[in-house]
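Deliverable D5.2: sample structural annotation.
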Amino acid sequence: VQLQASGGGLVQAGGSLRLSCAASGSSFSRYVVGWFRRPQGKDREFVGETDRTWYVDSVKGRFTISRDNAKNTVYLQMNSLIPEDTAIYYCAARDTYSSRGYEYWGQGTQVTVSS
């Protein structure tokens, strides 16, 4: 499966953005899709994934992940953005029936939140 993330941009603190992760290939529904982010100079952080209502503490209550299998797309709705959310955001996919973890990665999209 190939992934392409989009929807990043510059937004003021308190604003919202919705990121999209479009997938190509067949059997999209068999994949769990996760969102990760990498702030500049810091390690990559797992934000959350589809099929599980778990999010990293720093985004709980503000970010929501959803998927539309008919469109082969996963979304990351980000509300009440803060400058600390500034990062490159990546989507990745792992096969539900595999133990290999996240194997497929999109190219990333930059999110910048100004104060």
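Annotation notes: The mean pLDDT is 95. The CA atoms of residues 14 and 66 lie 21 Å apart.
The annotation will be released with the project's public dataset once the embargo ends.
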